[in-house]
Amino acid sequence: MPIKGWKCPIERTQVPFDHFETCKARKGRAAFPPWMARHAHLKIENDVRHSTLDVTATRTMNCPRQTFIEVLWDYYIDPSKIAARERGTALHSVAAEHTDPKLWYTEANDPVRMTINGEIGGVPLSMACDAMKRDMTEIVDYKFPSDFSVRFRGPKAKKEYACQVNMARLMLGQQEWALQAGYDPETVLLTIWDHACGKQEGPLAQEAPHMTEEEILATRPGGSNHTIEEIISIHLWMVQEYEKNGAPTDIGKLEEIAAQIPLVGEPMFRGDKCRMYCDVSEICFGIVRKYGRPEATWGTEDESPSEEQHRTDGRVEEDQGPSVCSTPTNAGLQKAVGSSVQKEGSSGSPRFSPTK
Known about the structure:
Radius of gyration: 20 Å
Strand order of the largest sheet: 4-7-8-9-10
Oligomer: single chain
């Protein structure tokens, strides 16, 4: 992602990544923790999987328009806006480094094996797996939500978390090395370690039930009006439009493409996604002001998320307007998405479509 540097939280100016090593904006002190800024910078530099428009597990549950802007625009962000997420990312590194390498595969001791490439719904995607027992009997995903969220959690993992670890379960079943090592996707345990801590509560191991591919694709992440299936279809259409226009670098042309991408993130997290958890919301809102809202969207008006799907519990992961769920008005999008998926997918008929 082409983040070019930071915005100083105090002076609101664009500064280089190493700015906080010498910053004295807060009465002679740095405006942001230097170690956290450096850790975030190194993660940004090394994040190869998210430097292109390829589909990843994370992106199947996020806003495609956000992905498009993050990959193709140059931008600066206030690091304090992503501090909670970066703290979680740092703790992920600590967990990976301190998990016994004799018993577990982790990103720290085997990053190649823990980067999984496979297919969901016939669409190629990649994901990073946090930890897996070397005897192939358990897959673990680490979560570091805000501590106040302990009051909302229970023994079962949130559906979005279950989707993520089930993607790993299904895609590991597509890896020859895993099958040769005795991996069985039907019996493997799926565990979400929730590291939120209360006054007398520590981390909790939550059970994630096995989900079918169809159940994963039908999930509406973060209270979204769109299913994972629809988000993938939008993402594929977006990539097709970008490539069809010659992979432009001109901002004007990129804006024209971005202006057509549905605002999937708007209803997420009870409407807080864009305002609080999107690094490129200012750019996105600027495109809306210039070009208006996209004319075509995915989904149908009677497919709004249930209260359970909409509930976020304040559990924004520390790693991490009006509805856009309406009937499409551009029939060309349906044809574009269908042809894109048919080319990528394993079946002869399109798996994804803008409408059900």
